[in-house]
Amino acid sequence: MLKQKFARPVSVIGTSSLPQRTFDDPEYKDLSVYELWAAACNQAMQDAGVKPKDIDKVVYSQMANFVTCGNVMAPVGSLEEWAGLAGKPITHIEQACAGGYLAFNEAVNSVASGKYDIVMCAGIESPKHFNARNQPAYMLQPIQKYDGWWSPGRALFDTAYSRFDGVSDNLLTEEQGKYYIKHYGIDEKTLDDTYNAMAINLRYNASHNPRALARTPYSEIAKKAGYDDVMAYMRSKNNPKITQYIRKSGSVLHNVEAGAIIVCSSDIAKKYQDHPITVIDHAEVSNTQRFPFCFHQMNVDVRDALYGGQDNFNPDDLDLMITTVMTSGEQLDSAEVFGYLPEGEGYKYELDGRTRFDADKPINPHGGDLSFGHGFGCAGINMLSEAIFQMRGTAGTDQVPKPVNDVLVRGMGGGHTTVGILLENQD
Amino acid sequence: MYKLRPILKPYYDNLEKGKILGMKCADCGDVVWPPLPTCQKCGSTNLDWIDLGTEAVIDEIRFEDSSVAGDYTFRKADEFFVSKEPYCICIGHFPKGTRQFHAALYGVTEANKDQLISQLPITADAEFIQLDGGFKSVGFRVRA
Ligand SMILES: [Zn+2]
After folding, report:
1. How would you classify the pairing of strands A141-142 and A406-413?
2. Could you give phi then psi for residue B32, rounded to 5 degrees?
């Protein structure tokens, strides 16, 4: 049993289960982020068996509210109204794609401090559409039409130095591949095959998960394009390289997202939820990409902080790892740094399909950012939701077919913040 | 007492004069570039300006074809560069510096990259990149 690290123990008692879709999808026709937010919050409250009056505080995460939601700065009051929570304390967290994880940590800390008993963290994000400032929120336009074309890859960098160095955005994609080749002696072709295999594995997972955004297996896509060998398709011009190492299949898919999670003091958790999940600990670091391999270093620093809090922690005891994969390299690097896969050997696990949800070292059983989808500041909430479903054994057709009692959720946002969260079934 | 003083303006003003300034910690000797008012090694605020010269040692070349169009998240950062000459990314350090940095590196092509990589580390000259916002940033160019 892991050692929970809070002054007052905290448990997860509820979450939401909205699918990953875009506003172009008929399923989301005529909706705005407000309806999605209300659905996510209410689903989580119903799942936890609590009413709005029971929620003591809300932590809300959104990165691009100003850009995509009618130039609104922080719609905290109206979001509360939509969920029946008007008048409650609410904190807005904007820390790029790490925001969802940090909202969860903030909710946990709020309970752990003893100040609040039941706290909800929730997120909303619309990466592909925006609502103009002179129109109601359901009137949406493609983000490409946003005045002055907004590139999140640019917005992530400050205007002191890093936005203007011509370097910063590129490092999001390439560093881990460089690191891997440099330290473990594999060649570029093997790395390419590894990344392709990873994309296939994640899509395999997503094809079993109706909540995922992209669900057609690559084998099927390859056949349609005239390829019997899926790897030949993955290496072809149909799946072009978008950087030196990363192909289209290895880059994050964006979609509108809403999600919510409710945590409470562990001593009252059973009153609401038959299967509460214990929050063991969390750790987070921020840094810049100015220095080489900073991306990798953030994983190292979070691992040391998180595992350092445990006595004799053995990462082999983890049943599942859920990790942000903005581009292929991130999954491989984080899985090895956190000891979920052996250092320098993780690529073999991807090549052999051993990271699929039904294999021996499952990673991102929902499909990860490459197939499940990704909604900036909400992404962390839904990654954690997947961990919760897996630990309860209620994930459905992408359920990992073994007891899932110890889970590491590792998230990253903006190239500047990395988070690790340990969860355990203790009840 | 922490001394309030401009950091960004003198840095960018000096780039216009062809000078690259960093800051050096008077307590531990660590050099920070681009300049910051706090030592990244020891936390001291006792830092002075240092002229880093206009040459750097290039330790690694990360060749990337900047004409490859990617997902919009990962588009090349040269959107604000006046010149659209392709460049790649390098890891380098200043002879007077104490840390490696990332920078844009000009003059690397498919044709010469293997030879250049085999010669690493190499010396490159500063390339003062003109930005459309009316200021310059620092990249490097391999010697012909
Ligand atoms: Zn110092």
Report:
1. unpaired
2. -115, 130
Residue written as token pair 């999808």: A25
pLDDT at position A148, please? 66
Confidence of residue B75 (pLDDT cuts 50, 70, 90): very low
Identify the residue with better confidence: B71 or B27: B27
Give the span between the Cα atoms of A378 and A282, in whole angstroms: 18
One-character DSSP codes across chain B: -PPP--SHHHHHHHHHTT--EEEEETTT--EESS--SS-TTT----EEEEE--SEEEEEEEE---TTS---GGG--GGGGBS-----EEEEEE-TT-SS-EEEEEES--TTTHHHHHHH-SEEEEEEEEEETTTEEEEEEEE--
Model pLDDT, residue A167:
80
Kind of pairing between the strands at B122-131 and B135-142 = antiparallel
Chain-chain contact of A170 with B137 (C-beta, under 8 angstroms): no
Write down which residue in B25, B52, B79 finishes a domain: B52
- What's the pLDDT at A291? 76
Q: Kindly list the protein residues that place their beta carbon closer than 5 angstroms to ligand 1, a single-atom ion.
A: B 25, 27-28, 30, 39, 41-42, 44
- Pairs of residues, one from chain A and one from chain B, whose beta carbons lie less than 8 Å apart: 109
Clarify whether residues B48 and B59 are in a common domain: no
pLDDT along chain A (427 residues), means of 10: 96 98 96 98 98 98 94 95 98 96 98 98 96 96 81 78 79 80 94 98 98 98 98 95 86 95 98 98 90 89 97 95 96 98 98 98 98 97 98 98 98 93 95
For residue B33, how far is its CA from the centre of ligand 1 (angstroms)?
A: 13
- Minimal CA separation from A171 to chain B, in Å: 9
Looking at the structure, do residues B45 and B59 belong to the same domain, yes or no? no
Q: Are residues B78 and B37 in the same domain?
A: no
Task: Check if the beta carbon of residue A269 is closer than 8 Å to that of residue A426.
Answer: no
Residues B48, B65 within the same domain:
no
Q: What is the mean pLDDT of residues B23-49?
A: 97
- In this predicted structure, what is the pLDDT of residue B111? 85
- Taking the model in full, what pTM does it have? 0.95
- Do B61 and B101 reside in the same domain of the chain? yes
Residue ranges of domains in chain A, CATH in brackets = 10-155+253-272 (3.40.47.10)
Give the domain range for residue B22.
Answer: 1-52
3-state SS class at A11: strand
Query: Which of A161, A178, A241 to mutate against chain B (most B CBs within 10 Å)?
Result: A161
Chain A residues with beta carbon closer than 8 angstroms to that of B80 = 163-164
A188 CB within 8 Å of a chain B CB = no
B79 or A55, which is more confident: A55
Q: What is the pLDDT of residue B72?
A: 37
